[in-house]
Amino acid sequence: MKNKVHIISLGCPKNLIDSEVMAAALIGSGFEIAPLPEDADIIIINTCTFILPAKEESIDEIFRMAELKKSGRCRHLVVAGCLPQRYGAILEKEIPEVDLFLGTGEISRIADLVAALQKKEGPGQRSCIGKPDFLMSSSHPRLLSTPPYTAYLKIAEGCSNHCSYCVIPDIRGKFRSRPIDDILQETETLAQGGVKEIIIAAQETTLYGKDLGYASGLSSLLREIALIDGIRWIRLLYTYPADLDDELFQTIHDVEKICNYIDIPVQHIDDDILGSMKRKGDSRLIKNSIASARKIIPGVALRTSMIVGFPGETQERFDRLLAFVRETRFDHVGVFEYSREEGTVADALPGHIPESVKELRRGIIMEEQALISREINQALIGSTMEIVIEEESDLPGYDYIGRARRQAPDIDGIAYVTAGEKAIGDIVKCLVVSADDYDLFAEEKVEKEQ
After folding, report:
1. What percent of the chain has pLDDT over 70?
2. What are 388's strand-pairing partners?
3. Can you list the domains of the chain with their CATH numbers?
4. pLDDT of res. 107
5. Radius of gyration of the chain from Cα atoms?
6. What is the DSSP letter of 178?
7. Contact between residue 152 and residue 128 where contact means Cβ atoms under 8 Å apart
């Protein structure tokens, strides 16, 4: 009988890809993936430690699975990813219920390490945490955990920016791109498996290829991916404002398969705060990049993320950020309360903000953005757009739930669709008939015969 493994993936899509690589490696070595932790002999938790809530979620999940291990079928509990990479020695001491801690560089070795764990008798080494130098390739198969019509595509690993609040360079290593031919090989495989939507991911997608000497790496990559049969949508996440350029915007405009959608995490707009964050570029650069995107790509949907309550964020500096939100009118906004991370430059800065003030400021921006999102969505009423069908709907009058090109999975709104019989993953041309703060309501547009 095969040993069953259950993998819990926490955090961002980039982490999810790592979990998919681990799952495929385990299957290739004779393990079986269990859909439920209760049915597993081995439970692996792929953790996140980007900000305090992510750490807390990871710790809570570890203790929850440790309880299951006491009373259930599970014999071995493995904790992998960012949390062990950052806190390995501490975790080994504080959480004896965990049998093995694995860092971010051990992903490709998961099957061998788990097999060795099963054979081990008595106490032994409980941590395997080396340099964070793993870079996946097309030779690493993935067991997709997304719906079969959509997949994330990691084009690079690590980060070299060293923003003052961030621990990612320590956890993931320096920025390193995958060769373009290798990415295209993986995309071909995904397309042959039925994937229609490719979602480009990396710590910073706009830096893609610079370390390999590619003159226009991301633009070239996007154009090549668009040539692959079966791919219908290409979506771009994690772009960095300072590295956006008109060539990329023109590529998005020119290539029909690329969604007119860009994720641009600006983090803040006050120049003093941006300087303290050690972000590349200033407020003028950010505003100019956004203006260029909208000029070259009419109707582009822009998503951003922001941090409120960063050390030194006075009321005046926060008001500047709020005014920027009102003026810029992003389609989608995520707001994070600054998380104090030990060992970062920002942790030692003066002027830390009370938690209650952070929470208040986040609420103010989210309330403002809800009004903006509603106005933007209602302006879409009467327009025609493609929507991918994702599941059946229980909302009266609407048969399906899906997403438009302007909506990324899990982070943006959804679209309710009235349509004839459709299969999950079908992409349908629809007319938008209604909208609320975040969601669209649409009807299939049936072309009349001439």
Report:
1. 98
2. 403, 427
3. 4-128 (3.40.50.12160), 150-378 (3.80.30.20), 384-444 (2.40.50.140)
4. 92
5. 23
6. P
7. no
